[in-house]
Amino acid sequence: MPGMSILSLLSLALLAGRSVAVGVSGTPEGFAASTTGGGSATPQYPADIAELKTWLTDSTARVIVLNKEYNFIGSEGSVTETGCRPASNKCPGDGGQDAINHADWCTNGNAGTGATSISVTYDKAGVSSIDVGSNKSIIGIGSSGVIRGKGLRIANGAKNVIIQNIHITELNPQYIWGGDAITIAGADLVWIDHVKISLIGRQFVVLGTTASNRVSITNNEFDGSTSWSATCDNHHYWALYFTGSNDLVTLKGNYIHHTSGRSPKVGGNSVIHAVNNYWYANSGHAFDVASGGYVVAEGNVFQNVVSPLLSGSAGSVFSSPDTTTNKACSTYLGHVCQLNAFGSSGTLTGSVTSFFSDFSGKTVATAAANTGVASSVKGNAGVGKV
Ligand SMILES: *[C@@H]1O[C@H](CO)[C@@H](O)[C@H](O)[C@H]1NC(C)=O
Hints:
Keywords: Carbohydrate metabolism, Lyase, Polysaccharide degradation, Secreted, Signal. Its EC number is 4.2.2.10. The structure is a single chain. The chain has a domain at 127-380: Pectate Lyase C-like, CATH 2.160.20. 10% of the residues lie in helices and 36% in strands. It contains four helices and 27 strands. The chain has helices at residues 6-21, 49-57, 330-333, 373-380, and strands at 43-44, 62-66, 69-71, 78-85, 98-99, 116-123, 130-131, 136-140, 146-148, 152-164, 167-171, 175-176, 182-193, 196-200, 205-207, 213-218, 221-223, 240-242, 247-252, 255-257, 265-266, 270-275, 278-289, 293-298, 301-309, 316-318, 341-343. The chain has a 23-stranded parallel beta sheet that branches. A two-stranded antiparallel ribbon has the order 4-6. Helix 2 (49-57) links the parallel strand 1 and strand 2 (62-66). The relative contact order is 0.11. Bound molecules: 2-acetamido-2-deoxy-beta-D-glucopyranose. 2-acetamido-2-deoxy-beta-D-glucopyranose (NAG) binds next to loops.
């Protein structure tokens, strides 16, 4: 290129470097392996929350790049109305988590006998999510991509969405029903990777009740640390809720910490492959598996988890109990299941194999031995690490 100046060559090189750096990192593992999101669309940086919303919701394939905070708090105003203090909230000093009367939760008995009416004031943006369209990648640069005060929802037939390396935070954490960070309901092919979620009112991730089909949730940090704990102990209770009607969920490499329950709750008709996750400092239960929930848990580490499995769970669990029994995984999962590890934790038991054929013909995540999982997950999960 004899006609080009040194400067143009330099900017070309910089541009080339930039296009290599900006994009989805890696490829999805597990059930949603064929997710491509916005594919090769040119990366675009939304100027503000309005443009972010427009690009997320339209029907154009997009790679949406966040390199700053998008703060929705206050953008839709606030609401003051009657909510409740649930009977379970006996935290001292007006602590704990009170509730918004969402779907009559306060008045239909769910808040428990002895619940009292109180006035609640919450941010309106937090209680409704942005409906993400099909064929989108939403990615952050370093740890700079933050969505504050609003969640994302992939629903009503939306398909093929990647959410990677962003932090979603501050959805009315003081209130039950204050907001969910990521909702999937009536979708297919969703990959949530290297996302951090903290300070939500309700769930980090909620699937259901319609079919979410193939979902991979990998390398995320779900941080339950809160000043408004439903269990009065700075641990968030409503964490992960998987109750879709026909769901295959890969849950791999996630750091799930400082929660006190429903981490996850599984039901509906959902198969969960939970592999190489690190549960840390859970003051209640990790898995709550209702009838219709099918869980293979392997290669995970539970450290300081009071109950890895809620006692009385009626669902189907394969806990990878011993090296002989674990050979049963080979036929349908393609590998011998790995043992889980427990440190200062309760137990996880279950040897149901009758649902293993649900893995047949699917892309199944690999599993590593649990040795080193705690440190590798802590070092790798969450935002700013891709
Ligand atoms: C998403 O991409 C697929 C494959 O290119 C295409 O068939 C489909 O129509 C797209 N969906 C939307 C809503 O644009």
